[in-house]
Amino acid sequence: MNAPLTAVPIAAKDFKSDYKPVWCPGCGDYSVLSSITKALATLGLRPENVAVVSGIGCSSRIPAYTTCYGFHGVHGRALPAATGLKVARPDLTVLVASGDGDGYSIGGNHFLHACRRNVDLTYIVMDNHVYGMTKGQPSPTTEPGWSSKLAPGGTGLREFHPLVIALASGANFIARAFSGDPNGTAALIAEAVRHPGFSFIEVLSPCVTFRPEQRGWKEVVHPAPVAPTDDPGRAARRIMTDDGFNIGVLYKGNRAPFRLAAAGATHASVDLESGFRL
Amino acid sequence: MPSTRKARAPAAEAYADFMARAYTMELEATERYAQFAEQLDTHNNRDVAQLFRKLAEVEALHAKRILAEMRWPSVSALVPAYAWDGAEGPETAPFDSLHYLMQPYHALKIALRCELKAVQYFEAIAAGTGPQRVRAAAAEMAAEEREHVKLIRDWMKRVPTPVAGWDYDPDPPGIGE
């Protein structure tokens, strides 16, 4: 995080736009939106210091509901857009919002490389294990046995394990949050923004319309029983063996974030633009 | 809280803290009910939206009364980020309580749950070992919340009880991009 702090404190509500969300009542994404605005207020940022970038899906509607700069991009391509923005405007705090379909399927490849590049971004994935916007198809994180009208008998496919993938690919901060705890999620988002490099937060965010049984998540989530580690080996063992409902910071690395100058770039963006001038 | 608090006696400070906490509780509940009203409005469930709006007004009145009693001029400067025992304030309804087809009975059931939690919260403080003034105020608030529980139970008797399958929808909503 390197945007300037506010002279006058502003409240979470100042980060909410006048657009009313159209998510289903009860959707976890309402809570995540609230957590994002609380986190930004806690960090003392102003809306003009922040950009929220997204792809496509229910969760990706978030930029419109904030007063920050917003970019509602192409399906699965939020991370490339956000990476370009952060590299060009390192002064901005850049949040990226996505869902399990947009982020892990359509944008799965970008996820790996964003972790690897370690640009100073905060990636918030609202995971409900289903494609909600298109009425309930199984997503990469859907359990193999989840049977529905659109996938009778289930897919039989092993779920994608985003936290392990993030760790193996080089993400510098990995946490799991639960939308049913908006204040806890806000604290995790603030911590992720403060941590340098690529920060990834998987937010368990129930889809009450197509996965009503996920209302039961509040009964099974629990704080991670151990303190965060900076040892990727230990983190890997923990994440591989956890029950998927450990909430908290699971890994806090100390890899230096990507810097354009360190990567050997010698041209300013204006120089590059001049090459395209007609 | 204003820095002048440091000069106060511990009992007075505890009382101010307690009232600030009670105020925050009412404010959080107000905001949540208002959000619920907006959500149901968006999904054309006007009756339930109206009911949540009413609940928000009731909670807002309580919040205002605390401000008046404490002679606190402004609100925002007073609200601390409290860590509640649960994820949110005891009187705040969880985000996932709603359904787009819900009926007034369900909304009242949510409100009842919240009021019961508020009763428990204040009763625990009233029965605790804090300063007498705090315990007395908590006992008073617990009594108020018990009155709300009664009112909501009466209200529930006046609205239709939902029949089984009230949430069945052969074609649940999708939202446009």
Which features would summarize this protein structure in a list?
heterodimer, A: 278 residues, alpha/beta, B: 177 residues, Ferritin, 60% helix, elongated
Q: How would the global form of chain B be characterised?
A: elongated
| Strand fraction of chain B | under 5%
> Can you tell me the overall shape of chain A?
globular
Got a strand count of chain A?
8
**How many domains of chain B?**
1
Q: Would you identify the CATH H-level superfamily of chain A?
A: Thiamin diphosphate (ThDP)-binding fold, Pyr/PP domains
CATH class of chain A equals Alpha Beta
- Element-by-element helix/strand order of chain A: HEEHEHHEHEHEHEHEH
Q: What is the CATH domain class of chain B?
A: Mainly Alpha
What percent of residues of chain B adopt helix (DSSP H or I)?
55-70%
Largest sheet of chain A: 8 strands, mixed
The number of domains of chain A: 1
Structural class of chain B: mainly alpha
- Indicate the mean pLDDT of chain A: 93
| CATH topology (fold) name of chain A | Rossmann fold
Instruction: Return Rg of chain A in Å.
Output: 18 Å
SS element count, helices of chain B: 4
Query: Topology as H/E string of chain B?
Result: HHHH
Structural account:
The complex is a heterodimer of chains A (278) and B (177). With 278 residues, chain A is α/β, with parallel strands linked by helices. Chain A has a single domain (12-274), classed as Thiamin diphosphate (ThDP)-binding fold, Pyr/PP domains (Rossmann fold, 3-Layer(aba) Sandwich), CATH 3.40.50. Helix content of chain A is 30%, strand content 15%. Chain A contains nine helices and eight strands. Chain A has helices at 28-42, 78-88, 100-106, 108-117, 162-169, 182-194, 217-220, 232-241, 269-274, and strands spanning 50-54, 69-72, 93-99, 122-127, 173-178, 199-204, 222-223, 246-252. An eight-stranded mixed β-sheet of chain A has the order 2-1-3-4-6-5-8-7, with helices on both faces. In chain A, α8 links the parallel β7 (222-223) and β8. In chain A, α1 packs across α6 (182-194) and α4 (108-117) packs across α5 (162-169). The longest helix of chain A is centred in the N-terminal third of the chain and has 15 residues, at 28-42. Chain B is mainly α. In chain B, α1 (10-42) runs parallel beside α4 and α2 (46-70) runs parallel beside α3 (104-126). Chain B is elongated and about 60 Å long. Mean pLDDT of chain B is 88; it is low at 1-8. The chains are: A alpha/beta (278), B mainly alpha (177). The A-B interface holds A 11, 20-28, 30-31, 34, 42, 56, 58, 61, 133-136, 179-184, 206, 208-210, 215, 218 and B 35-36, 38-43, 45, 76, 81, 83-84, 87-88, 94-100, 102, 172-175, 177.
